[in-house]
Design a protein that fits this description.
Layout lengths: L21 H15 L10 H30 L3 E5 L3 E2 L4 H8 L2 H10 L4 H6 L5 E2 L3 H15 L4 E6 L7 E5 L2 E5 L12 E2 L5 E5 L2 E6 L5 E6 L2 E13 L6 E10 L6 H5 L3 H12 L16 H24 L7 H4 E6 L6 H12 L4 H11 E4 L10 E3 H7 L1 H21 L4 H7 L2 E2 L5 E3 H7 L1 E6 L2 H11 L1 H6 L4 E3 L6 H7 L2 H11 L20 H26 L8 E6 L8 H17 L8 E6 L7 H19 L7 E5 L5 H7 L5 E4 L11 H7 L3 E4 L5 H8 L5 E2 L4 H9 L4 H6 L2 H11 L12 H9 L5 H20 L1 H13 L6 H13 L17
Helix pairs in contact: 1-2, 1-4, 2-3, 3-19, 6-33, 9-11, 11-12, 11-14, 13-14, 21-32, 22-23, 22-29, 22-31
The chain binds ligand NBX.
Length: 838
């Protein structure tokens, strides 16, 4: 960064602005915060100081909307959505808030007048990575859309001290580093210790009768922790709404246990603090795989109990009677992670507020909705009974009671069908006993949904079949969406300018309006502009790749991108096999005409998922060989961009030509990256899986590269005893590919390194890579041919964007509001501190 030429705050005026222009006011406020918040002057200020000064400047502008919103909601007693999620993968706030406030260009100008570059300051923000992947990012898009649609809503979650690990590559292997996102403080949050709540854990229960013979249950915990809320305002796009993201931090009720301290046991005294704070210490980095850890269950219960207690507190201040809980709050469960809420609300209503069981149960079911995000059996949460009892003894009793009543209902409905009773029970009793969280969520909710059409259908036919048969009306589909504010307006400013120049700015709030771009797909001038933007975005990404990977890539080559968590079902290794196939073709036929391609990968592997880490190693190994080989280097490049995150995603999606969405059909619930790519004008190569199907339907089959077995065909092939060896025998190229890996071509002759991966494919291939290999390679041939006709490719690219309107999270949220939550917008008039009387 250049040494800033800071204008003195007293002299105030910049080069050529009005005395009261927005840029002048921003500049003034910025310098004020540099002095009086950061306590720095330019000679000593770091980039972080400048970032923080700007962040505080923007925060001041949020607070007025936040207070106005809280005032309006409190006055109206509005019905409110409580979105319960163990993860919120927010991404950096500064740029997004500037966009939503309409101050982005003014901020850029005022910073440049001070000799500062806004992009450098934006880059200083450490993103709050409080999520693993799609599920956590979906929660972030949803709270953005809720605010934009002016729906009263609170996002409830955990303020992890350490978010998702930072991924580095060492010798081509993933190495994890702690994510210390709070290191320099967080200007976007306000602690609200006055609204702290107490949460009990462990211990046992006692029963007693009162004078009237009524039975009361007392939970005697063996420890308690304090939940302290930290609030972040969530702005709507160009409106006055600022909703709240409320994340709970765990603290010890007393920082020191003085009784222990006075005995001279300092360690013991501090220990309680350490143990308590562990609850919100770190995000579990596993996606799509559960680890039955006690701390994880305690985390889930901690934030759910805090949140429900918080709702009861709000009801009290607004004088809403307890029996109207479900009218005041619509509570959505983001997967089963917060499903313990069903038992906790029952406990709060019956044990703590003496409500009768039947009334409490009626309220509970009217309150909750449950969204499922996966069909993978290893991702379905179940807790060993013993562990559950140790952490939540009272909740286990409540779950037994819910179960007894529920199974009575099942027996009545399905006379004599004990097999069904066993299948549906909240307790799994075959072998070790478990509490089934998905069953608890189904029984305790009035609405159950999947996240794409195929996924919702498969839920009904498969994982939740019995529940669908019993309560068909509870089931529905809500196809995911993503926010166009972050994923187009912020991430792709060049495209945003071009689109708005053609059709106005309405699309940012009403994404269906992108349809108006369709005629422009035939306009050569518009196409040239579109192409130039993609090229510029690719140049920017090439700079990032050169800096971070030390690899030079050619922006005129096709950027073929797969970014997402690394998982066998997502099949990054299918792409790896295909790249080796291309490499082999080029080596055996040096004159082969081939569209030059840059393959870009990004994504984190769960630290304990060995096979996923080996897939990363395979990709980096292929890169090492291919990028160094002069015979192919003009045609093929392979890079693995470390630490895929929201921040990096914002640079990657706008630069992609081709989006790889190649999961085994029936495995990817929806996908949301697929939508971000399409909006930004990438074409998709993909299977009939998740939301790919709906994307293809929208953009047109002729503008989508389809390959592979359908979910139904996968089931049939596997049902008939799938033998991957048969596919290997029938495919010469695939045999060459496997043989190259086996013989250590990509591991300096080490034939052992990738053996587990190859053996798994040849002998089991649980995700049917071999069955889909040829179809995938053929689809890539079609892609290569299509890309060479750059006019036609551009036309298809424009049509992909123009027809992506359905995939705005605004549409998704409007459907949740209408079908599940029954909530209405509330318009917020702006309040100034001069209007307020104390
Ligand atoms: O949720 C993802 C699905 O895999 C995607 O298909 C879908 O688009 C997205 C949003 O609906 N699931 C996901 O990201 N799961 C997790 O991150 C996860 C985290 C912890 C855990 C289980 C799953 N214990």
């Amino acid at each position: 960064m250049n040494q800033p030429q800071v204008v003195s705050p007293n002299s105030g005026r910049g080069p050529d602005d009005e005395p009261d222009s927005p840029t002048r006011r921003l500049r003034h406020a910025f310098l004020h915060h540099l002095f009086y918040t950061q306590g720095k002057f330019p000679a000593l200020a770091t980039k972080t100081d400048y970032y923080l000064a700007l962040a505080h400047t923007v925060r001041d502008r949020l607070l007025q909307r936040w207070i106005s919103t809280a005032n309006e909601y409190t006055k109206n007693g509005s019905r409110t959505v409580a979105y319960l999620s163990a993860e919120f993968l927010m991404g950096p706030h500064l740029g997004n808030n500037l966009i939503n406030l309409g101050l982005f260009d003014d901020a850029r100008k005022s910073m440049s007048e001070l000799g500062l570059n806004l992009d450098d300051l934006l880059y200083e923000e450490e993103e709050p990575g409080l999520g693993n992947g799609g599920l956590g990012r979906l929660a972030a898009c949803f709270i953005d859309s809720l605010a934009t649609l002016e729906i009263p809503a609170v996002g409830y979650g955990i303020r992890y001290e350490f978010g998702i690990f930072h991924q580095t590559l060492v010798d081509g292997w993933q190495v994890e580093k702690t994510d210390k996102w709070l290191r320099y403080g967080n200007p976007w949050e306000l602690a609200r210790p006055e609204w702290s709540v107490t949460v009990k854990l462990g211990g046992h229960t006692e029963r007693m009768q009162d004078n009237s013979g009524q039975l009361h249950v007392r939970w005697v915990p063996n420890r308690t922790v304090l939940g302290v809320p930290y609030d972040t305002p969530i702005l709507g796009y160009r409106n006055n709404t600022a909703n709240t993201l409320r994340l709970w931090k765990a603290e010890a009720p007393e920082a020191f246990d003085f009784a222990v301290f006075n005995r001279g046991d300092y360690q013991g005294a501090v220990n309680q603090k350490v143990v308590s704070e562990n609850l919100s210490k770190v995000l579990y980095p596993n996606d799509e795989h559960v680890e039955g850890k006690e701390l994880r269950l305690a985390q889930q219960y901690f934030f759910v109990s805090c949140s429900l207690q918080d709702m009861l507190r709000i009801m009290k201040t607004q004088h809403v009677p307890l029996h109207e809980f479900h009218e005041k709050f619509a509570v959505q469960l983001n997967d089963t992670h917060p499903a313990i809420g069903v038992a906790e609300l029952m406990r709060l209503l019956t044990d703590e507020h003496q409500m009768h069981w039947n009334q409490a149960w009626d309220i509970t079911r009217k309150t909750f909705g449950y969204t499922n995000h996966t069909l993978l059996p290893e991702a379905l949460e179940r807790w060993p009974l013993e562990l559950f009892k140790r952490v939540l003894p009272r909740h286990l009793e409540i779950i037994y009671e819910i179960n007894a009543r529920f199974l009575d209902e099942v027996r009545q409905r399905y006379f004599g069908d004990e097999a069904r009773v066993t299948r549906m029970s909240l307790i799994e009793e075959t072998g070790e006993r478990y509490v089934r969280m998905a069953h608890l969520a189904c029984v305790g909710s009035h609405a159950i949904n999947g996240v794409a059409e195929l996924h919702s259908e498969l839920l009904k036919q498969d994982v939740l079949k019995d529940f669908h048969e019993m309560w068909p009306a509870k089931f529905g589909n809500k196809t995911n969406g993503v926010t166009p504010r972050r994923w187009i307006a912020l991430a792709n400013p060049r495209l945003t300018r071009l689109i708005s120049g053609a059709i106005g700015e309405g699309w940012i709030k009403r994404l269906e309006e992108l349809r108006q771009l369709e005629p422009f797909a035939l306009d050569p001038n518009f196409r040239a502009g579109w192409r130039e933007i993609k090229r510029a975005n690719k140049r920017d990404l090439s700079d990032v790749i050169r800096k971070r990977c030390g690899v030079a890539v050619d922006p005129s080559s096709m950027f073929d991108v797969q970014v997402k968590r690394i998982h066998e079902y997502k099949r990054q290794h299918l792409s790896a096999l295909h790249i080796i196939g291309l490499y082999h073709r080029l080596k055996t036929n040096p004159n082969l005409e081939m569209t030059p391609r840059t393959f870009i990968f990004g994504g984190k592997a769960a630290p304990g998922y060995w096979m996923a880490k080996l897939i990363i190693r395979l990709i980096t190994s292929i890169g090492e060989v291919v990028n160094r080989d002069p015979a192919v280097r003009d045609k093929l490049r392979v890079v693995f961009l470390p630490n895929f995150s929201v921040t990096n995603g914002q640079r990657i999606y706008p630069a992609a030509d081709l989006s790889e969405q190649i999961s085994t059909a029936g495995k990817e619930a929806s996908g949301t990256g697929n939508m971000k790519f399409a909006m930004n004008g990438a074409l998709t190569i993909g299977t009939m899986d998740g939301a790919n199907i709906e994307i293809r339907e929208q953009v047109g089959a002729e503008n989508f590269f389809l390959f592979g077995l359908t979910a139904h065909e996968v089931a049939t092939v596997r049902g008939n005893g799938y033998r991957p060896q048969d596919y290997l025998d029938g495919n010469a190229e695939l045999r060459e590919v496997i043989s190259l890996i086996r013989h250590g071509y990509f591991s300096r002759g080490d034939g052992e390194l990738f053996r587990p991966l190859v053996d798994s494919l040849v002998n089991h291939d649980p995700y049917c890579l071999f069955a889909d290999y040829q179809s995938y390679a053929d689809a890539h041939e079609r892609v290569g041919t299509a890309y060479r006709d750059s006019e036609d490719w551009t036309r298809m690219s424009i049509l992909n964007s123009a027809r992506s309107g359905l995939f705005s999270s605004d549409r998704t949220i409007a459907e949740y509001c209408r079908d599940i939550w029954n909530v209405q917008p509330v318009q917020v008039p702006i309040l100034s501190h001069e209007d307020v009387r104390v």
